[in-house]
C-alpha cells in the first residue's frame, strides 16, 4: 500500500512536470492570434457598428470619442522587436565578431607570416585580446545595458497586453510604500537566489551540481515568467515564492525549456540574448497557464535561505520589515 502511494506520488509529479513543459510552449501558438482577438474584442466593446465599418474599410471621417481612445494590441510587434534587437543586432554582431572577424584576421596573419610562425603567433597573441576588449567595452557592454532597459519596457508591455487578453482585472497592492517595499525586496531575493544558483553549480559531483543548477534556474525562470501575472493579481512576494515552492514539480517543468536553451553557449552575453529572444513567449505562456497544484506534500524550500538573508539586509539598510507573511505560513493557505 505504501509502495502504491509512493508510485502515485511519483507519477503525479511526473505529470505535473510534463504539463509545465507543455504549458511553457503554449505562448508560441497564442502569440499569433492574441493581437487579432484583443483588437476585435476592443472594437466590439466600443461600438458594434463602428467596428464593422473599420474592419470593412468604411470608417467615417469623424470618429467617435470612445474610438479615438482605442489602443491597438502590439504583442506580436513587441516580440518581433525583441527578436530584432537581441538576435538581429546584439547576438548577430557577437557571432560575426567571434566567428567571422577574428578568424579572418588570424587567417590573414598566417598568410603573411606563415602558418605556425613565431612572429605571427606573437602578433596574434596581443592583437586578439586587444580587439576583444575593445569590442566588448565599446559595443557589447553599452548595447547590453541599453537592451536591458528597452527589453524591460517591452516585456512589461507584452505582460500587460497578455493580462488584458485573459480578461482579468488588475488588483494592485493598496499602498505605494507596500508596492515599493515589495519591488525592492523582490530584486534582492532574485539577485541572491541567482548567486545561490551559481554556487550550487560548483558542487564537486558534476551531475548533482548541474542537476541542482538546472532546478534552480527552472524555478527562477518560472518566477520571472509568472511574476507579471501575479503582481497584477496583487500577490505579495512571499505568496509568490510560497506558491512556487509548494507546487515545484510544475514550475520546474515550466522553466526547464528556457533553462536548457540558455545553456547552449558558455558566453554570458549570448545566453542573455537567447533569454531575451524567448522570454516574451514565456510571459504569454505564464499568463495563459493553469499550474498543476497539490501533487506533492513536500515543499521545496530553495528560496528560504535567500529570503532569510534578504530580511536581514532589508531590515539593516531600510529599517522596515518587509511583507510580514512568512513563506511557511502562506504555503499552508
From TrEMBL:
<feature type="transmembrane region" description="Helical">
    <location>
        <begin position="202"/>
        <end position="221"/>
    </location>
</feature>
<keyword id="KW-0732">Signal</keyword>
<comment type="similarity">
    <text>Belongs to the EI24 family.</text>
</comment>
<dbReference type="Pfam" id="PF07264">
    <property type="entry name" value="EI24"/>
</dbReference>
<dbReference type="GO" id="GO:0016020">
    <property type="term" value="C:membrane"/>
</dbReference>
<feature type="transmembrane region" description="Helical">
    <location>
        <begin position="241"/>
        <end position="261"/>
    </location>
</feature>
<keyword id="KW-0472">Membrane</keyword>
<protein>
    <submittedName>
        <fullName>Etoposide-induced protein 2.4 homolog isoform X1</fullName>
    </submittedName>
</protein>
<dbReference type="GO" id="GO:0005783">
    <property type="term" value="C:endoplasmic reticulum"/>
</dbReference>
<keyword id="KW-0812">Transmembrane</keyword>
<dbReference type="InterPro" id="IPR059112">
    <property type="entry name" value="CysZ/EI24"/>
</dbReference>
<feature type="transmembrane region" description="Helical">
    <location>
        <begin position="176"/>
        <end position="196"/>
    </location>
</feature>
<feature type="signal peptide">
    <location>
        <begin position="1"/>
        <end position="16"/>
    </location>
</feature>
<feature type="transmembrane region" description="Helical">
    <location>
        <begin position="83"/>
        <end position="102"/>
    </location>
</feature>
<dbReference type="GO" id="GO:0016236">
    <property type="term" value="P:macroautophagy"/>
</dbReference>
<keyword id="KW-1133">Transmembrane helix</keyword>
<feature type="transmembrane region" description="Helical">
    <location>
        <begin position="122"/>
        <end position="146"/>
    </location>
</feature>
Amino acid at each position: 500500500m505504501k509502495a502504491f502511494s509512493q508510485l502515485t506520488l511519483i507519477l503525479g509529479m511526473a505529470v505535473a512536470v510534463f504539463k509545465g513543459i507543455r504549458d511553457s510552449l503554449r505562448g508560441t501558438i497564442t502569440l499569433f492570434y492574441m493581437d487579432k482577438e484583443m483588437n476585435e474584442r476592443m472594437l466590439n466593446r466600443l461600438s458594434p457598428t463602428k467596428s464593422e465599418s473599420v474592419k470593412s474599410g468604411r470608417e467615417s471621417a469623424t470618429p467617435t470619442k470612445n474610438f479615438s481612445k482605442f489602443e491597438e494590441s502590439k504583442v506580436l510587434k513587441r516580440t518581433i522587436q525583441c527578436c530584432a534587437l537581441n538576435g538581429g543586432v546584439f547576438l548577430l554582431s557577437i557571432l560575426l565578431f567571434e566567428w567571422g572577424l577574428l578568424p579572418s584576421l588570424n587567417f590573414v596573419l598566417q598568410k603573411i607570416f606563415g602558418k605556425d610562425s613565431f612572429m605571427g603567433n606573437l602578433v596574434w597573441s596581443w592583437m586578439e585580446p586587444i580587439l576583444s576588449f575593445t569590442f566588448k567595452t565599446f559595443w557589447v557592454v553599452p548595447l547590453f545595458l541599453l537592451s536591458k532597459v528597452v527589453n524591460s519596457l517591452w516585456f512589461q508591455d507584452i505582460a500587460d497586453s497578455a493580462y488584458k487578453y485573459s480578461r482579468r482585472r488588475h488588483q494592485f497592492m493598496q499602498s505605494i510604500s507596500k508596492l515599493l517595499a515589495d519591488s525592492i525586496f523582490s530584486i534582492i531575493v532574485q539577485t541572491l537566489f541567482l548567486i545561490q544558483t551559481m554556487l550550487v553549480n560548483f558542487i564537486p559531483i558534476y551531475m548533482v551540481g548541474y542537476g541542482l543548477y538546472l532546478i534552480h534556474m527552472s524555478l527562477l525562470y518560472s518566477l520571472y515568467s509568472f511574476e507579471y501575472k501575479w503582481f497584477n493579481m496583487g500577490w505579495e512576494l512571499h505568496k509568490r515564492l510560497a506558491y512556487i515552492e509548494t507546487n515545484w514539480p510544475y514550475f520546474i517543468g515550466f522553466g526547464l525549456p528556457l533553462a536548457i536553451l540558455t545553456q547552449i553557449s558558455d558566453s554570458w552575453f549570448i545566453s542573455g540574448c537567447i533569454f531575451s529572444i524567448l522570454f516574451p513567449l514565456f510571459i504569454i505562456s505564464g499568463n495563459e497557464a493553469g499550474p498543476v497544484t497539490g501533487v506533492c506534500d513536500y515543499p521545496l524550500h530553495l528560496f528560504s535561505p535567500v529570503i532569510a538573508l534578504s530580511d536581514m539586509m532589508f531590515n539593516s539598510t531600510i529599517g522596515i520589515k518587509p511583507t510580514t507573511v512568512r513563506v511557511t505560513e502562506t504555503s499552508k493557505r
